[in-house]
Amino acid sequence: MKITLIAVGKTEETWLRAGIREYEMRIRHYLPFSILEISSLKNAGSLSQTEQNSREAELILRQLAPGDTLVLLDEQGAAMRSVEFAAFLNKQFSTGGKNLVFVVGGPFGFDPEIKKKARFILSLSKMTFSHQMVRLFFTEQLYRALTILKGESYHHE
User: Which domain covers residue 127, as residue numbers?
Assistant: First the structure.
């Protein structure tokens, strides 16, 4: 199974890019992984929140292939401990799906249309983080979950 992280906007901070890149390389030791950044909307300031969400949803949905399993990362989603996230991944792996696609939305969350298409909505925290930081937190948690599944010593509990 391949895992993709789709994110709206660019990661601008050098230190965040370095951390994300580090975990991206570590994840690739276990499975195919990629990050796809979708450009932020032009003239977003002139659009309502609803219009921004709708346009971002269109851009995200264009990236999905038939059979992809869509998981949204949203603070309103279900919270999991790291070992629960590992079990969630293991279940996804065993269902035989082709691609598992996680999405970090734009500044106003997700359009209802994309929420309908999501198989699951996951919260990394009830706190609000910058969308750039979510990418780092997600890649670290994905790496952690993969080490848990392999029985490696990265995670301590």
Answer: 2-40+48-150
Amino acid letter at 147? T
SS3 (DSSP) at 82: helix
Going by C-alpha positions, the residue among 61, 72, 53 that lies closest to residue 124 is 72
Q: Residue 139 maps to which CATH number?
A: 3.40.1280.10
How many beta carbons lie within 10 A of that of residue 38, not counting itself? 19
**Residue with tokens 């949905």, as numbered in its chain:** 61
pLDDT tens column, 46-86: 778 888 888 899 999 999 999 999 999 998 899 999 999 99
Using an 8 Å Cβ cutoff, are 119 and 96 in contact? no
Take residue 97 and report the two structure tokens written for it. Answer: 């799906």
Helices 14-27 and 131-150 sit at what angle, rounded to 10 degrees? 20
How many Cα neighbours within 13 Å face the side chain of 100? 20
The tokens for 82 are 């790291």
pTM of the entire structure? 0.93
Q: Is residue 157 part of a domain?
A: no
Q: Which helix (H) or strand (E) holds 147?
A: helix 131-150
Task: Please measure the distance between the N-terminal and C-terminal CA atoms of the chain and give it in whole angstroms.
Answer: 27
